[in-house]
Amino acid sequence: MNYRSLGKSGAYVSELSFGSWVTFSKQADVDLAAELIKTAYDAGVNFFDNAEVYEKGKSELVMGKALKKLGLRRDSFLVSSKVYGGVVDEPNPNQQGLSRIHIYDGCHQAMERLQADHLDLYFCHRPDPRIPMEEVVRSMTELIQQGKVRYWGTSEWSAQQLMEAHSVARQYNLIPPTMEQPQYNMFERYRFEVEYARLYDVIGLGTTIWSPLASGMLSGKYDETTPEDSRINLPGYEWLKKFFESDKGQERIRKTRELKTIADDLNTTRAQLALAWCLKNENVSTVITGASRLSQLQENLNALDVVPALTGEIMDKIEDVIQTRPDPMEFQIAKD
Amino acid sequence: MNYRSLGKSGAYVSELSFGSWVTFSKQADVDLAAELIKTAYDAGVNFFDNAEVYEKGKSELVMGKALKKLGLRRDSFLVSSKVYGGVVDEPNPNQQGLSRIHIYDGCHQAMERLQADHLDLYFCHRPDPRIPMEEVVRSMTELIQQGKVRYWGTSEWSAQQLMEAHSVARQYNLIPPTMEQPQYNMFERYRFEVEYARLYDVIGLGTTIWSPLASGMLSGKYDETTPEDSRINLPGYEWLKKFFESDKGQERIRKTRELKTIADDLNTTRAQLALAWCLKNENVSTVITGASRLSQLQENLNALDVVPALTGEIMDKIEDVIQTRPDPMEFQIAKD
Amino acid sequence: MNYRSLGKSGAYVSELSFGSWVTFSKQADVDLAAELIKTAYDAGVNFFDNAEVYEKGKSELVMGKALKKLGLRRDSFLVSSKVYGGVVDEPNPNQQGLSRIHIYDGCHQAMERLQADHLDLYFCHRPDPRIPMEEVVRSMTELIQQGKVRYWGTSEWSAQQLMEAHSVARQYNLIPPTMEQPQYNMFERYRFEVEYARLYDVIGLGTTIWSPLASGMLSGKYDETTPEDSRINLPGYEWLKKFFESDKGQERIRKTRELKTIADDLNTTRAQLALAWCLKNENVSTVITGASRLSQLQENLNALDVVPALTGEIMDKIEDVIQTRPDPMEFQIAKD
Amino acid sequence: MNYRSLGKSGAYVSELSFGSWVTFSKQADVDLAAELIKTAYDAGVNFFDNAEVYEKGKSELVMGKALKKLGLRRDSFLVSSKVYGGVVDEPNPNQQGLSRIHIYDGCHQAMERLQADHLDLYFCHRPDPRIPMEEVVRSMTELIQQGKVRYWGTSEWSAQQLMEAHSVARQYNLIPPTMEQPQYNMFERYRFEVEYARLYDVIGLGTTIWSPLASGMLSGKYDETTPEDSRINLPGYEWLKKFFESDKGQERIRKTRELKTIADDLNTTRAQLALAWCLKNENVSTVITGASRLSQLQENLNALDVVPALTGEIMDKIEDVIQTRPDPMEFQIAKD
């Protein structure tokens, strides 16, 4: 396993990392979770991703118990949480979003669920336009100053919002965000490649990529029909099913089918190809993978072997199929 | 119950909140306090106000025991204290006012009395011209950075003093005050409406209003004679009695009598009318109500239903009776 | 003529302003330029836009002579220049882009050509990634501090770049940009309406809109065939011709044809409709119009009468035709 | 003549200074103006006050010519202007108020009218809530940095606004206001004595007092009937006439009559008594006097001799008559 620095920060993350998202609690109990974590850990994975909102805290609870069961050295891995949605059902304006109140309470409660004396990475799971940026950046800075959090970051913030956080941090001598957790895959590239382009240098932004398989689509498992056990049949994922059935979704499924030849030629799977493709981008710090079965995790981990095979020639072939290279000038035709 | 943001901060407070001032300890024991808090909480009240000086700490002690008895989730409500007067009788220059010494000790002792691991709001109960503003703002900032306080504010500070605190915070990169607890009611409007006018925008000041009934006067209970059990007959309230008997006091009692017709027409009480009238001002974040009896609390809570009934026409009628709209130019007659 | 504040700055610009772009020097001599400026000025236009690169300085020369001929009070109008492309043919790395060298020399030379003792607005005509942002913002700040420039801004910068300039200004206590000159019209909306959305508040960004007619297309003059005297037949405008002939260009010509009914119903022209449509957006500070004939200028100025006629219903009708409302979520389909 | 420092700044102003307000141009031509200035100057007056709005620039023109005629050393006196109202009749949003545009143009034009290479004091004649405070303070700072202005200040700003300017100056390392020009006299005391109380120390605010005679009332000339040549009969002063005839005005005239005994006992006039009374307040830097006749000026200057006669006993007697000592607690009756 190779390790990459998390942007310009001092933290190093394994190229592949492991996220619990939909799997822990819903599809994996503590024993299975422990087995998955152990396998990843033994393969060199050093970052385990989580969020308060994943299964309303249960995903963190399961991960916390699994980590405890394994008895791994606390200083040998990184664990994260993300604050935004809260864990309770009853509406409480102070326990949602990014106020100092919820940033603090969310952190304390995640630490408790994860049985962790600190969070290595703590993300703002979404932007919260209700809250002054100064309050968000101050609260995150304070948690770092209290030793509860090592690095703070964001997820799905726009380049403007990231710069705004950076600006407030520089203006008030607070700690700027270190990393962003964006979606990035063969089909979703504009934000990562164009909108964020300057941030890797200006902020020194690190990235922890999610959805490298485009909600599983790039694995090819939706080539013909949808497998019964797919998450797209889970309650709450109707939006995903709808998207798969749309014109845009169908076109992507078609392109994914075409990728099979390239994958076959490289003696790999399309899932591995898609993960390796993400890692070819040097602005990616780590690609978060998920798995509800050991075999799936193993397949993902093997993607690392594919990276060196992705020569310029192969990358061009992939581009010919997916045709998604974003145009930085997409929004400008006239000249002044 | 609706919630309003506390100025431009990320905290949300219920439109009506509950303060213990003179009632807890003196007029309400732990059991009654718990009952009052529970009733308010169930109605959506999320902010419980207190101060070290209320009954010299006993009010906080009672509230702490009542909250513990109820076993409410700590992250589901906000609790405050205020520092200034201290809790001991013997004069000690270090345990009064706003030095770093008393701001810290006051905070720690209030947390202990309230059995709270942090204070959501912590107020400077009065300005303290003896103490350099930098020391006040630094001490409050430090308590926030230590995780003991979430937001700090002031009570009965002038606009100049609030701007001075803001200025010091901006100059030395400390945390500016978030909220002020001013008196505001139909009879006392100049400061809130004129003197503070720019602060709601410039500082983003939130406000937690006290004395919405003008020391109870607006409820109409002093219409004819003073009820035996009124606080104005309590020892220590001679100043209030004297004011009620002054010309100014008598004029207010007369106006309060006239408000009865308007309240009757709306099928409400004058107390409810007075509370609802405060809430019509969008710069009010929350109106603190007190109660020593359940029935009184219930009446207060019902004031929320009166707010929508206060149309422009009704507000004009009220103005015709009270005639207290402040003149922003009161202090200027000549032109230059 | 109404005036709008230029973002949160203290400058006020007329809703319609006058830009010389391609017309001065190429299509209008000093006498005609003076006539156009006088007509606009008498109608209340108070901002005359220019740039060093327009006809390589000749546009500013003509405007300078025309203004001098008219003898208008210098304090009764605002004049701008923009720095980036330089005015000489031979390549000189120091007289292009946004180095301190070219920002200074560009300012001095524009002042001379415009015969102006100061520039009211001075724009960075494009972003220049070669130059450290600190140097750009410092240079602009220095020109303001020297009294040569009143407000500085940008043109066609991304939200990220604008925030970066703002961030550098706040970090080093320099002057942030006041305004941006973006393209904005019925067909180009994403950047102005989505990407910039928070900047109007966070930076207080003012906007001086160019291309309100989408390179003239929205006037309807390309409905059937291209008129001989159109700028799309001028040398150097081959890119525009090519765009008009593309699928996207043809679709826009078709939509423009459909707008005719709406314009006819309002007893106005499509050019006026397009200008008025821009002014309905409150984040527009001023719409820059160009004209090479008095009649054309007059038509543009009359667009102001159309604004009040653009009711919500009419705006919906226009939307039904153009169907260009941008989707803020365009780049996100998956959920986390 | 004694000199007092202008607040905590390094500038020294004569205890009495000379302002042109309504007199120059309207009541005094260049020759008379020169005579008045020379007399004041010879008596030690070192500050001559003006404003762009006084007679729409003509007051400055007359003062400029008079100063030139006298040929006084430029470094031996201080001259001021004030920016806000502009000098032209036609409405121009950019040549009124406190934008960078008008602050600059106002300064340049005042310097030209006054024939002065710099302004010693430059005031914001009124607050301008339309303009961001940062723009106001930056513009004033820039003019000082360019050497055009020595000290900047305000006139008739509230304590909150003064603190806001101070706050912005400290936050962005700009120059805070040095002085304020408020109304202050026996009848108008609240702002100067209560609202500003902390500013003399916190900001180090200097004050150049206007209206020391309460629009002439305190001179006693309205004791019986209004003299024909009084300014209250000038067009544009109807507001003043109306005030004099009001209950409040009549009460003041009555009190002024009562002051005659005290003045007589001291062998002085009531005008001199009123000027000397202002100078007893150490927070007054200078009292601006006006005069349209030499004799009037001489009378004012002799007020300096009265100051030592105002013992504590005499001041108490005056207080007994005027009864205007402001109550710092005027707006607070209830206790918390």
Automatic annotation (TrEMBL), chains A, B, C, D:
Biological process terms in GO annotation: monoatomic ion transmembrane transport
CDD domains: AKR_AKR6C1_2
Keyword Oxidoreductase in annotation: yes
Alphabetized UniProt keyword annotations: Ion channel, Ion transport, NADP, Oxidoreductase, Transport
Matching Pfam families: Aldo_ket_red
Classification via Gene3D superfamilies: NADP-dependent oxidoreductase domain
Signal peptide interval: none
SUPFAM superfamilies: NAD(P)-linked oxidoreductase
NADP-dependent oxidoreductase domain sequence ranges: 15-321
Family to which the UniProt record says this protein belongs: Belongs to the shaker potassium channel beta subunit family.
Top-level taxon of origin: Bacteria
Keyword Oxidoreductase among UniProt keywords: yes
GO molecular function, one term: oxidoreductase activity
Designated name of the protein: Voltage-gated potassium channel beta subunit
